[in-house]
Design goal:
single chain, about 325 residues, alpha/beta, 13 helices, globular
Length: about 325
C-alpha cells in the first residue's frame, strides 16, 4: 500500500510539473481528462472542447492524464493555478464514488475542486449473456436464481454500487465479481465466463443490437434515448430512489474567480444547445444536461448522499 501511495504521489507530481511547463508556453485552455484517450469521458471532452473552441475563439486542448482510477488527472487540476486556464472533466469516480468506497485520494474533492456545470449523463446497464436464459429483468427475478455472479470494472466502482444496491433490494440474489477495468469485464461477459454484468451503457449498445448480449435494464430514473425500448430498474422492480449513472461534469481548481466559472458555464450551456453537439453526445448514449452551477452543486450533494448511504448499507469497500 505504501508503495502504491509513493508511486501515485510521484506520478501526480510529474504530471503537475509537465502541465505547468506546457501552459506557460501556450495560453490555451487546458481540459484535463483523467482517463486515457478513446474512452467515454474522453469522447465527451473532445466533442464539447471542439465546440467551445469555435464559440470562444480560444483553443480548448484536451489533455489525457489517466491513472489511479482518475485520481492523477483530478489531482493535477486540484493543484493547478486557479486562473481560468485549467479545467477538469470528471466522472463520478473522482468526485463521489472513490470517497464513498473508502479510497484515500491525493486531493479533497470538496475543498480543492469547484463545480462548474454538468455536461451529461449516461445510464449504467444490467447486461445478461444469452446463456443465462433470461431476456428481461422481470424474468431474472421470476427465475429465483441464487447468487448470480455479476461482473463490473472493479471494486468500489459505480457499477459495483449499482449491483450491490440491486441485490440489497431483495429482488435479485447477486455476487460481485470485480475486474481490473471495463474491457476485461466486458470481454468475459461476451465470452460467457460471467453471465451477468453491470457496465457503462455506450460500450454495450452495439453488442446488444447484435444479439451477443441482452441489456435487461438501465439504472437511471428515465429510459435512455439511445435505447428507448429498454426499461429502467426502478420501473420494473419498483425500487425507490434507485439511480446510478456515469456523468461528466466540469470542475475548476478551488480559488478560480467567479467570473471565470460563470463564463465557462455559459459557454458550455451554449455548446450543449447546438444540435450537432447534442446529436453526437446522444449517439454515444450520453444525454446532454447543462444548467446552472447551483443546480450542479445540488446534484452533487444528492450523489454524495446516495453513494455514502449505499456504501454503509451494502458494506461496500474498495478492497472487496
Amino acid at each position: 500500500m505504501n508503495c502504491f501511495k509513493t508511486t501515485l504521489a510521484a506520478l501526480t507530481t510529474l504530471a503537475a510539473l509537465s502541465f505547468t511547463s506546457t501552459t506557460s508556453a501556450n495560453q490555451a485552455v487546458r481540459v484535463i481528462v483523467p482517463y486515457p484517450a478513446g474512452g467515454g469521458v474522453d469522447a465527451v471532452a473532445r466533442i464539447v472542447s471542439q465546440k467551445l473552441t469555435d464559440l470562444d475563439k480560444t483553443n480548448y486542448l484536451v489533455d489525457n492524464r489517466g491513472g489511479a482510477s482518475g485520481a492523477i488527472g483530478a489531482s493535477v487540476v486540484a493543484k493547478s493555478q486557479p486562473n481560468g486556464s485549467t479545467f477538469l472533466i470528471a466522472s463520478p469516480a473522482e468526485i463521489v464514488v472513490s470517497k464513498a468506497a473508502g479510497i484515500k485520494l491525493p486531493y479533497n474533492p470538496e475543498r480543492d475542486l469547484v463545480p462548474v456545470v454538468l455536461i451529461g449523463e449516461t445510464p449504467l446497464a444490467i447486461v445478461a449473456h444469452p446463456s443465462l436464459g433470461v431476456t428481461s429483468l422481470q424474468q431474472l427475478v421470476n427465475s429465483q436464481q441464487k447468487d448470480i455472479s455479476y461482473g463490473t470494472p472493479g471494486s468500489g466502482s459505480s457499477m459495483h454500487f449499482a449491483g450491490a444496491v440491486l441485490s440489497l433490494s431483495g429482488k435479485v440474489s447477486l455476487l460481485h465479481v470485480p475486474y481490473k477495468g471495463a474491457a476485461p469485464a466486458l470481454n468475459d461477459l461476451l465470452g460467457g465466463q460471467v453471465k451477468l454484468g453491470v457496465m457503462g451503457l455506450p460500450p454495450v449498445i452495439a453488442h446488444h443490437n447484435s444479439g451477443k448480449v441482452k441489456i435487461l435494464a438501465v439504472t437511471t430514473p428515465k429510459r435512455s434515448p439511445a435505447l428507448p425500448d429498454v426499461p429502467t430498474v426502478a420501473e420494473i422492480l419498483k425500487v425507490k430512489d434507485y439511480r446510478f449513472s456515469n456523468w461528466m461534469g466540469v470542475f475548476a481548481p478551488a480559488g478560480t474567480p467567479a467570473k471565470e466559472i460563470e463564463r465557462l458555464n455559459k459557454s458550455i450551456n451554449q455548446a450543449l444547445q447546438d444540435p450537432a453537439v447534442r446529436k453526437q453526445l446522444m449517439d454515444g448514449g450520453v444525454e446532454p444536461v447543462g444548467g446552472s452551477t447551483a443546480q450542479f452543486e445540488s446534484f452533487l450533494k444528492e450523489e454524495e448522499a446516495r453513494y455514502t448511504s449505499a456504501a454503509k448499507q451494502a458494506d461496500i469497500r474498495a478492497d472487496q
